[in-house]
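Complex record, two chains
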Amino acid sequence: MPKENRKINFGQLFKELEEITAWFEREEVDLEEGLKKFERGLELAKLLKGHLNRVENRVNEIKAKFESEGEKEGEDETENTAFDF
Amino acid sequence: MRVFKVSEFIDFLNEALAAAAPRDEVAVEGEVASFNIAQNQWVRFDLKDETALLNCFLTVWQLRVPIEDGMKIRVRGFPKIYPRYGKLSLVVHHIELVGEGALKKAFEMLKKKLAAEGFFEVSRKRPLPRFPSRIALITSPGAAAYTDFLRILNNRWRGVTVDLLPVAVQGVGAVDQITGAFRWLNEHCAYYDICVLTRGGGSLEDLQAFNSEAVARAIYASKVPVVCGVGHERDETLADYVADVRASTPSNAAELVVPDYREVLRNISSHCLTIASALSRRLMQTEDFLNESVWRLRSFITQKEQLFSKLFLNLRSHFLVFHQKFTQHREAALASKARLSFAAANLLSAVSLRLQKEERLLKSLDPQAVLKRGFSIVFNQEGKVVKNAAQVDKGELIKIKLKEGGLLSEVKEKNQDA
Protein backbone atom coordinates (compact mmCIF):
# COMPACT_ATOMS: atom_id res chain seq x y z
CA MET A 1 0.00 0.00 0.00
CA PRO A 2 1.48 3.31 -0.98
CA LYS A 3 1.94 6.15 1.49
CA GLU A 4 -0.92 8.59 1.18
CA ASN A 5 -0.78 12.09 2.58
CA ARG A 6 -4.27 13.38 2.20
CA LYS A 7 -4.04 15.27 -1.05
CA ILE A 8 -0.62 16.86 -0.68
CA ASN A 9 2.82 15.54 0.17
CA PHE A 10 3.52 18.01 2.92
CA GLY A 11 7.17 17.10 3.33
CA GLN A 12 7.95 17.40 -0.34
CA LEU A 13 6.24 20.77 -0.77
CA PHE A 14 7.85 22.15 2.38
CA LYS A 15 11.25 21.09 1.09
CA GLU A 16 10.52 22.83 -2.19
CA LEU A 17 9.73 26.03 -0.29
CA GLU A 18 12.99 25.76 1.65
CA GLU A 19 14.88 25.32 -1.60
CA ILE A 20 13.32 28.45 -3.04
CA THR A 21 14.33 30.45 0.05
CA ALA A 22 17.86 29.07 -0.16
CA TRP A 23 17.98 30.11 -3.83
CA PHE A 24 17.04 33.66 -2.88
CA GLU A 25 19.68 33.79 -0.19
CA ARG A 26 22.44 33.11 -2.67
CA GLU A 27 23.90 36.32 -4.08
CA GLU A 28 22.83 36.82 -7.68
CA VAL A 29 19.05 36.85 -7.98
CA ASP A 30 18.04 36.81 -11.59
CA LEU A 31 14.98 39.02 -11.89
CA GLU A 32 12.96 36.96 -14.30
CA GLU A 33 13.52 33.69 -12.55
CA GLY A 34 13.15 35.40 -9.19
CA LEU A 35 9.66 36.51 -10.05
CA LYS A 36 8.72 32.99 -11.11
CA LYS A 37 10.12 31.46 -7.94
CA PHE A 38 8.48 34.14 -5.82
CA GLU A 39 5.09 33.23 -7.22
CA ARG A 40 5.71 29.52 -6.71
CA GLY A 41 6.88 30.21 -3.16
CA LEU A 42 3.70 32.04 -2.30
CA GLU A 43 1.66 29.30 -3.89
CA LEU A 44 3.46 26.67 -1.82
CA ALA A 45 2.98 28.67 1.36
CA LYS A 46 -0.71 28.92 0.66
CA LEU A 47 -1.02 25.15 0.07
CA LEU A 48 0.96 24.28 3.18
CA LYS A 49 -0.87 26.69 5.44
CA GLY A 50 -4.19 25.58 4.04
CA HIS A 51 -3.34 21.95 4.71
CA LEU A 52 -2.38 22.65 8.31
CA ASN A 53 -5.51 24.64 8.97
CA ARG A 54 -7.83 22.21 7.29
CA VAL A 55 -7.02 18.58 8.02
CA GLU A 56 -7.43 16.53 11.18
CA ASN A 57 -5.54 13.61 12.67
CA ARG A 58 -7.01 10.14 12.33
CA VAL A 59 -6.67 7.34 14.83
CA ASN A 60 -7.45 3.72 13.87
CA GLU A 61 -7.18 0.52 15.86
CA ILE A 62 -5.70 -2.47 14.09
CA LYS A 63 -7.83 -5.50 14.77
CA ALA A 64 -5.27 -8.26 14.91
CA LYS A 65 -4.00 -10.56 17.55
CA PHE A 66 -0.32 -10.16 18.12
CA GLU A 67 0.66 -13.45 19.59
CA SER A 68 4.05 -14.97 19.05
CA GLU A 69 4.27 -18.17 17.05
CA GLY A 70 5.61 -21.43 18.44
CA GLU A 71 4.98 -20.94 22.10
CA LYS A 72 3.34 -24.28 22.56
CA GLU A 73 5.73 -26.46 20.66
CA GLY A 74 8.75 -28.24 21.96
CA GLU A 75 7.64 -29.28 25.42
CA ASP A 76 6.72 -32.81 24.54
CA GLU A 77 9.93 -33.26 22.66
CA THR A 78 11.69 -33.18 25.96
CA GLU A 79 9.88 -36.31 27.12
CA ASN A 80 12.49 -38.77 26.19
CA THR A 81 15.60 -36.75 25.78
CA ALA A 82 15.79 -35.08 29.16
CA PHE A 83 18.15 -37.57 30.67
CA ASP A 84 19.88 -38.90 27.66
CA PHE A 85 23.17 -37.09 28.13
CA MET B 1 -3.41 -52.77 48.86
CA ARG B 2 -2.45 -52.24 45.26
CA VAL B 3 0.68 -53.81 43.80
CA PHE B 4 2.35 -52.11 40.88
CA LYS B 5 5.13 -52.85 38.52
CA VAL B 6 7.80 -50.16 38.71
CA SER B 7 6.90 -48.51 35.43
CA GLU B 8 3.22 -48.68 36.33
CA PHE B 9 3.94 -47.08 39.67
CA ILE B 10 5.86 -44.27 38.08
CA ASP B 11 3.01 -43.64 35.62
CA PHE B 12 0.61 -43.66 38.56
CA LEU B 13 2.72 -41.10 40.39
CA ASN B 14 3.04 -38.93 37.29
CA GLU B 15 -0.71 -38.84 36.93
CA ALA B 16 -1.06 -37.87 40.55
CA LEU B 17 1.54 -35.17 40.08
CA ALA B 18 -0.25 -33.82 37.01
CA ALA B 19 -3.47 -33.63 39.00
CA ALA B 20 -1.82 -32.05 42.02
CA ALA B 21 0.18 -29.44 40.17
CA PRO B 22 -1.71 -28.57 36.99
CA ARG B 23 -0.03 -26.51 34.39
CA ASP B 24 -0.36 -22.74 34.83
CA GLU B 25 -1.84 -23.07 38.30
CA VAL B 26 1.38 -23.66 40.11
CA ALA B 27 4.70 -21.91 40.09
CA VAL B 28 7.87 -22.55 42.01
CA GLU B 29 10.21 -19.89 43.31
CA GLY B 30 13.78 -20.46 44.26
CA GLU B 31 17.42 -19.72 43.68
CA VAL B 32 19.25 -20.97 40.64
CA ALA B 33 22.20 -23.28 41.12
CA SER B 34 24.31 -25.53 38.92
CA PHE B 35 23.09 -23.81 35.82
CA ASN B 36 24.46 -25.38 32.66
CA ILE B 37 23.71 -25.81 29.00
CA ALA B 38 24.65 -29.09 27.31
CA GLN B 39 25.33 -29.58 23.61
CA ASN B 40 23.93 -26.07 23.06
CA GLN B 41 20.44 -27.51 23.36
CA TRP B 42 19.58 -28.70 26.84
CA VAL B 43 19.33 -26.33 29.78
CA ARG B 44 19.49 -27.76 33.24
CA PHE B 45 19.64 -26.16 36.62
CA ASP B 46 18.60 -26.73 40.20
CA LEU B 47 16.05 -24.56 41.91
CA LYS B 48 16.67 -24.49 45.63
CA ASP B 49 15.71 -22.87 48.87
CA GLU B 50 17.19 -23.23 52.38
CA THR B 51 16.58 -26.92 52.70
CA ALA B 52 15.44 -28.42 49.41
CA LEU B 53 16.35 -28.71 45.78
CA LEU B 54 14.40 -29.31 42.58
CA ASN B 55 15.94 -30.25 39.26
CA CYS B 56 14.68 -28.18 36.33
CA PHE B 57 14.94 -28.78 32.64
CA LEU B 58 14.11 -26.97 29.38
CA THR B 59 15.45 -26.50 25.88
CA VAL B 60 17.70 -23.58 25.06
CA TRP B 61 15.11 -22.09 22.72
CA GLN B 62 12.62 -21.84 25.49
CA LEU B 63 15.07 -19.89 27.60
CA ARG B 64 13.76 -16.37 27.17
CA VAL B 65 15.50 -14.69 30.05
CA PRO B 66 19.17 -14.83 30.91
CA ILE B 67 19.74 -16.60 34.20
CA GLU B 68 22.73 -17.29 36.36
CA ASP B 69 23.49 -19.16 39.50
CA GLY B 70 22.33 -17.22 42.51
CA MET B 71 19.42 -15.52 40.76
CA LYS B 72 15.99 -15.74 42.29
CA ILE B 73 13.46 -16.91 39.74
CA ARG B 74 9.94 -18.16 39.45
CA VAL B 75 9.22 -21.05 37.11
CA ARG B 76 6.10 -22.66 35.73
CA GLY B 77 6.05 -26.14 34.31
CA PHE B 78 4.97 -29.63 35.14
CA PRO B 79 6.66 -32.10 37.44
CA LYS B 80 7.59 -35.40 36.01
CA ILE B 81 9.38 -38.52 37.16
CA TYR B 82 11.40 -39.89 34.30
CA PRO B 83 10.83 -43.62 34.20
CA ARG B 84 14.28 -44.48 32.91
CA TYR B 85 16.15 -42.95 35.84
CA GLY B 86 13.41 -42.62 38.36
CA LYS B 87 14.25 -39.00 38.98
CA LEU B 88 11.92 -36.12 39.51
CA SER B 89 12.35 -33.13 37.24
CA LEU B 90 10.37 -30.00 36.63
CA VAL B 91 9.90 -29.52 32.92
CA VAL B 92 9.92 -25.74 32.65
CA HIS B 93 7.94 -23.79 30.12
CA HIS B 94 8.06 -20.36 31.64
CA ILE B 95 10.67 -18.52 33.67
CA GLU B 96 10.23 -15.21 35.37
CA LEU B 97 12.82 -13.21 37.21
CA VAL B 98 11.86 -12.32 40.73
CA GLY B 99 12.99 -9.43 42.79
CA GLU B 100 14.94 -6.31 41.90
CA GLY B 101 18.27 -7.97 42.31
CA ALA B 102 17.60 -10.67 39.77
CA LEU B 103 15.99 -8.29 37.37
CA LYS B 104 18.82 -5.82 37.63
CA LYS B 105 21.39 -8.53 37.07
CA ALA B 106 19.54 -9.89 34.06
CA PHE B 107 19.29 -6.37 32.74
CA GLU B 108 23.04 -5.82 32.99
CA MET B 109 23.83 -9.17 31.38
CA LEU B 110 21.51 -8.62 28.48
CA LYS B 111 22.68 -5.05 28.03
CA LYS B 112 26.26 -6.24 27.73
CA LYS B 113 25.32 -8.98 25.32
CA LEU B 114 23.33 -6.71 23.03
CA ALA B 115 25.98 -3.99 23.17
CA ALA B 116 28.52 -6.52 21.97
CA GLU B 117 26.26 -7.34 19.06
CA GLY B 118 26.12 -3.66 18.15
CA PHE B 119 22.48 -3.11 19.03
CA PHE B 120 23.17 0.27 20.58
CA GLU B 121 25.47 1.61 17.86
CA VAL B 122 24.69 5.24 17.09
CA SER B 123 25.51 4.69 13.44
CA ARG B 124 22.58 2.34 12.93
CA LYS B 125 20.03 4.78 14.29
CA ARG B 126 17.84 6.04 11.50
CA PRO B 127 16.72 9.65 11.17
CA LEU B 128 13.00 10.35 11.51
CA PRO B 129 11.06 11.89 8.63
CA ARG B 130 10.21 15.50 9.37
CA PHE B 131 6.58 15.39 8.34
CA PRO B 132 5.30 11.84 8.85
CA SER B 133 1.95 10.93 7.39
CA ARG B 134 1.33 7.55 9.04
CA ILE B 135 2.42 6.45 12.46
CA ALA B 136 2.16 2.94 13.91
CA LEU B 137 1.54 3.09 17.68
CA ILE B 138 2.33 0.02 19.75
CA THR B 139 0.90 0.41 23.23
CA SER B 140 -1.90 -0.52 25.53
CA PRO B 141 -5.07 1.47 24.70
CA GLY B 142 -6.14 1.39 28.32
CA ALA B 143 -2.98 3.06 29.60
CA ALA B 144 -2.49 6.72 30.38
CA ALA B 145 0.49 6.63 28.03
CA TYR B 146 -1.88 6.16 25.12
CA THR B 147 -4.07 9.16 25.94
CA ASP B 148 -1.07 11.32 26.81
CA PHE B 149 0.60 10.54 23.51
CA LEU B 150 -2.51 11.24 21.45
CA ARG B 151 -3.31 14.42 23.32
CA ILE B 152 0.09 15.95 22.66
CA LEU B 153 0.05 14.69 19.06
CA ASN B 154 -3.31 16.27 18.32
CA ASN B 155 -2.16 19.46 19.95
CA ARG B 156 0.92 19.71 17.80
CA TRP B 157 0.13 18.52 14.34
CA ARG B 158 -2.56 17.94 11.73
CA GLY B 159 -2.98 15.53 8.90
CA VAL B 160 -1.28 12.48 10.39
CA THR B 161 -2.90 9.06 10.63
CA VAL B 162 -2.16 6.92 13.70
CA ASP B 163 -2.73 3.16 13.58
CA LEU B 164 -2.90 1.62 17.04
CA LEU B 165 -1.51 -1.89 17.44
CA PRO B 166 -2.97 -2.80 20.85
CA VAL B 167 -0.75 -4.91 23.08
CA ALA B 168 -0.28 -5.71 26.74
CA VAL B 169 2.72 -3.78 28.01
CA GLN B 170 3.37 -5.93 31.08
CA GLY B 171 2.57 -9.31 32.49
CA VAL B 172 2.05 -12.61 30.78
CA GLY B 173 1.99 -12.41 27.03
CA ALA B 174 3.38 -8.86 26.86
CA VAL B 175 6.62 -9.94 25.20
CA ASP B 176 4.80 -12.16 22.69
CA GLN B 177 2.26 -9.51 21.80
CA ILE B 178 4.86 -6.83 21.36
CA THR B 179 7.08 -9.00 19.18
CA GLY B 180 3.98 -10.09 17.28
CA ALA B 181 3.04 -6.47 16.70
CA PHE B 182 6.52 -5.75 15.30
CA ARG B 183 6.21 -8.73 13.02
CA TRP B 184 2.90 -7.37 11.69
CA LEU B 185 4.54 -3.96 11.29
CA ASN B 186 7.38 -5.36 9.22
CA GLU B 187 4.87 -7.02 6.92
CA HIS B 188 3.19 -3.64 6.39
CA CYS B 189 6.33 -1.51 6.62
CA ALA B 190 5.76 0.27 3.32
CA TYR B 191 2.73 1.94 4.84
CA TYR B 192 4.33 3.60 7.84
CA ASP B 193 6.86 6.39 8.37
CA ILE B 194 7.45 5.93 12.09
CA CYS B 195 6.65 3.41 14.82
CA VAL B 196 6.09 4.55 18.39
CA LEU B 197 6.46 2.05 21.22
CA THR B 198 5.36 3.48 24.54
CA ARG B 199 4.07 2.72 28.04
CA GLY B 200 3.81 4.44 31.36
CA GLY B 201 6.21 4.19 34.29
CA GLY B 202 6.46 1.20 36.65
CA SER B 203 8.69 -1.00 38.72
CA LEU B 204 11.52 -3.01 37.26
CA GLU B 205 9.19 -6.02 37.26
CA ASP B 206 6.50 -4.08 35.42
CA LEU B 207 9.01 -3.02 32.77
CA GLN B 208 10.35 -6.54 32.24
CA ALA B 209 8.93 -6.92 28.78
CA PHE B 210 10.79 -3.77 27.67
CA ASN B 211 14.02 -5.22 29.02
CA SER B 212 13.56 -8.57 27.33
CA GLU B 213 15.84 -9.86 24.60
CA ALA B 214 12.90 -10.75 22.37
CA VAL B 215 11.52 -7.21 22.34
CA ALA B 216 15.02 -5.74 21.89
CA ARG B 217 15.57 -7.97 18.87
CA ALA B 218 12.15 -7.11 17.48
CA ILE B 219 12.97 -3.39 17.68
CA TYR B 220 16.38 -4.00 16.14
CA ALA B 221 14.81 -5.85 13.23
CA SER B 222 12.09 -3.29 12.65
CA LYS B 223 12.00 -1.97 9.08
CA VAL B 224 10.32 1.19 10.30
CA PRO B 225 12.24 3.67 12.50
CA VAL B 226 11.23 3.19 16.14
CA VAL B 227 10.70 5.85 18.79
CA CYS B 228 10.54 4.32 22.28
CA GLY B 229 9.24 6.22 25.29
CA VAL B 230 8.84 4.48 28.62
CA GLY B 231 7.38 5.99 31.72
CA HIS B 232 9.29 8.84 33.21
CA GLU B 233 12.54 10.59 32.44
CA ARG B 234 14.51 8.37 34.83
CA ASP B 235 13.17 5.09 33.46
CA GLU B 236 15.57 3.58 30.99
CA THR B 237 14.94 0.24 29.41
CA LEU B 238 16.86 -1.78 26.84
CA ALA B 239 14.08 -1.00 24.39
CA ASP B 240 15.01 2.67 24.79
CA TYR B 241 18.63 1.95 23.95
CA VAL B 242 17.87 -0.16 20.90
CA ALA B 243 15.26 2.18 19.46
CA ASP B 244 16.26 4.67 16.76
CA VAL B 245 15.19 7.51 19.03
CA ARG B 246 14.60 7.50 22.75
CA ALA B 247 11.78 9.58 24.19
CA SER B 248 11.74 10.28 27.90
CA THR B 249 7.96 9.94 28.23
CA PRO B 250 4.96 9.13 26.04
CA SER B 251 4.27 12.87 25.72
CA ASN B 252 7.87 13.47 24.71
CA ALA B 253 7.47 10.77 22.06
CA ALA B 254 4.66 12.82 20.49
CA GLU B 255 6.92 15.87 20.55
CA LEU B 256 9.65 13.97 18.76
CA VAL B 257 7.62 12.45 15.97
CA VAL B 258 5.67 15.47 14.75
CA PRO B 259 6.58 19.14 14.57
CA ASP B 260 4.59 21.91 16.19
CA TYR B 261 2.22 23.24 13.55
CA ARG B 262 2.36 26.78 14.97
CA GLU B 263 6.12 26.77 14.57
CA VAL B 264 5.85 25.40 11.06
CA LEU B 265 3.33 28.12 10.17
CA ARG B 266 5.74 30.71 11.49
CA ASN B 267 8.51 29.06 9.52
CA ILE B 268 6.47 29.26 6.33
CA SER B 269 5.72 32.93 6.96
CA SER B 270 9.37 33.65 7.56
CA HIS B 271 10.27 31.91 4.30
CA CYS B 272 7.76 34.13 2.49
CA LEU B 273 9.26 37.18 4.13
CA THR B 274 12.78 36.21 3.16
CA ILE B 275 11.74 35.59 -0.43
CA ALA B 276 9.77 38.82 -0.66
CA SER B 277 12.52 40.97 0.80
CA ALA B 278 15.19 39.32 -1.34
CA LEU B 279 13.15 39.99 -4.44
CA SER B 280 12.38 43.55 -3.38
CA ARG B 281 16.06 44.14 -2.73
CA ARG B 282 16.89 42.85 -6.15
CA LEU B 283 14.31 45.10 -7.76
CA MET B 284 15.74 48.10 -5.98
CA GLN B 285 19.22 47.10 -7.02
CA THR B 286 18.09 46.91 -10.60
CA GLU B 287 16.39 50.28 -10.37
CA ASP B 288 19.51 51.83 -8.89
CA PHE B 289 21.59 50.27 -11.58
CA LEU B 290 19.35 51.66 -14.31
CA ASN B 291 19.41 55.12 -12.81
CA GLU B 292 23.13 55.07 -12.50
CA SER B 293 23.56 53.85 -16.04
CA VAL B 294 21.36 56.64 -17.39
CA TRP B 295 23.25 59.21 -15.36
CA ARG B 296 26.56 57.92 -16.55
CA LEU B 297 25.46 57.90 -20.15
CA ARG B 298 24.13 61.40 -19.84
CA SER B 299 27.25 62.75 -18.20
CA PHE B 300 29.40 61.03 -20.77
CA ILE B 301 27.52 62.69 -23.60
CA THR B 302 27.59 66.07 -21.85
CA GLN B 303 31.31 65.73 -21.38
CA LYS B 304 31.84 65.07 -25.04
CA GLU B 305 29.61 67.98 -25.93
CA GLN B 306 31.57 70.30 -23.73
CA LEU B 307 34.85 69.09 -25.12
CA PHE B 308 33.62 69.67 -28.62
CA SER B 309 32.45 73.21 -27.80
CA LYS B 310 35.76 74.01 -26.23
CA LEU B 311 37.71 72.75 -29.20
CA PHE B 312 35.50 74.61 -31.59
CA LEU B 313 35.90 77.92 -29.78
CA ASN B 314 39.61 77.33 -29.59
CA LEU B 315 39.80 76.69 -33.28
CA ARG B 316 37.74 79.75 -34.01
CA SER B 317 39.88 82.08 -31.93
CA HIS B 318 43.08 80.67 -33.38
CA PHE B 319 41.70 81.14 -36.85
CA LEU B 320 40.86 84.76 -36.15
CA VAL B 321 44.36 85.40 -34.91
CA PHE B 322 45.80 83.67 -37.90
CA HIS B 323 43.64 85.68 -40.26
CA GLN B 324 44.68 88.88 -38.60
CA LYS B 325 48.34 88.03 -38.84
CA PHE B 326 47.96 86.89 -42.37
CA THR B 327 46.41 90.19 -43.37
CA GLN B 328 49.16 92.09 -41.59
CA HIS B 329 51.86 90.18 -43.31
CA ARG B 330 50.24 90.55 -46.68
CA GLU B 331 50.12 94.29 -46.31
CA ALA B 332 53.69 94.38 -45.15
CA ALA B 333 54.67 92.26 -48.08
CA LEU B 334 52.88 94.53 -50.51
CA ALA B 335 54.50 97.55 -48.95
CA SER B 336 57.89 95.91 -49.22
CA LYS B 337 57.25 95.05 -52.80
CA ALA B 338 56.38 98.66 -53.57
CA ARG B 339 59.49 99.92 -51.85
CA LEU B 340 61.57 97.33 -53.62
CA SER B 341 60.29 98.40 -57.02
CA PHE B 342 60.96 102.01 -56.19
CA ALA B 343 64.42 101.23 -54.92
CA ALA B 344 65.13 99.10 -57.93
CA ALA B 345 64.14 101.87 -60.22
CA ASN B 346 66.33 104.28 -58.31
CA LEU B 347 69.20 101.90 -58.41
CA LEU B 348 68.80 101.48 -62.09
CA SER B 349 68.92 105.19 -62.84
CA ALA B 350 71.82 105.61 -60.42
CA VAL B 351 73.70 102.85 -62.13
CA SER B 352 72.90 104.35 -65.51
CA LEU B 353 74.28 107.70 -64.45
CA ARG B 354 77.37 106.03 -63.08
CA LEU B 355 77.75 104.19 -66.25
CA GLN B 356 77.66 107.41 -68.28
CA LYS B 357 80.16 108.95 -65.96
CA GLU B 358 82.46 105.99 -66.28
CA GLU B 359 82.06 106.09 -69.99
CA ARG B 360 83.19 109.73 -70.09
CA LEU B 361 86.02 108.91 -67.82
CA LEU B 362 87.01 106.03 -69.91
CA LYS B 363 86.85 108.10 -73.03
CA SER B 364 89.06 110.66 -71.44
CA LEU B 365 91.59 108.02 -70.70
CA ASP B 366 91.64 106.93 -74.30
CA PRO B 367 95.24 106.86 -75.47
CA GLN B 368 94.14 108.30 -78.82
CA ALA B 369 92.89 111.34 -77.07
CA VAL B 370 96.32 111.65 -75.40
CA LEU B 371 97.97 111.34 -78.79
CA LYS B 372 95.58 113.90 -80.12
CA ARG B 373 96.96 116.37 -77.64
CA GLY B 374 100.46 115.92 -79.12
CA PHE B 375 101.88 113.28 -76.85
CA SER B 376 103.48 110.07 -78.26
CA ILE B 377 103.90 106.49 -76.98
CA VAL B 378 107.30 104.78 -77.06
CA PHE B 379 107.54 100.95 -77.46
CA ASN B 380 110.73 98.89 -77.25
CA GLN B 381 111.67 96.22 -79.72
CA GLU B 382 109.50 93.74 -77.83
CA GLY B 383 106.57 95.99 -78.19
CA LYS B 384 106.46 96.86 -74.49
CA VAL B 385 105.72 100.51 -73.53
CA VAL B 386 108.71 102.38 -72.34
CA LYS B 387 108.11 104.55 -69.30
CA ASN B 388 111.63 104.66 -67.93
CA ALA B 389 114.85 105.60 -69.75
CA ALA B 390 116.51 102.79 -67.94
CA GLN B 391 114.35 100.33 -69.80
CA VAL B 392 116.36 100.98 -73.04
CA ASP B 393 120.01 101.03 -73.91
CA LYS B 394 121.98 103.28 -76.24
CA GLY B 395 121.82 102.14 -79.81
CA GLU B 396 118.53 100.16 -79.15
CA LEU B 397 115.79 100.62 -81.64
CA ILE B 398 112.49 102.02 -80.39
CA LYS B 399 109.15 102.61 -81.97
CA ILE B 400 107.32 105.90 -81.54
CA LYS B 401 103.60 106.19 -82.11
CA LEU B 402 102.34 109.69 -83.11
CA LYS B 403 98.79 110.96 -83.54
CA GLU B 404 99.21 110.17 -87.17
CA GLY B 405 101.85 107.58 -88.18
CA GLY B 406 104.91 106.32 -86.32
CA LEU B 407 108.73 106.51 -86.27
CA LEU B 408 111.46 104.01 -85.92
CA SER B 409 114.37 105.61 -84.01
CA GLU B 410 117.66 104.82 -82.52
CA VAL B 411 118.61 105.83 -79.03
CA LYS B 412 121.53 108.29 -79.20
CA GLU B 413 121.56 109.50 -75.74
CA LYS B 414 119.53 109.03 -72.50
CA ASN B 415 119.26 110.83 -69.21
CA GLN B 416 117.42 110.21 -65.97
CA ASP B 417 115.70 113.54 -65.45
CA ALA B 418 112.25 113.31 -64.11
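Note: The two ends of chain A are 52 Å apart (CA to CA).
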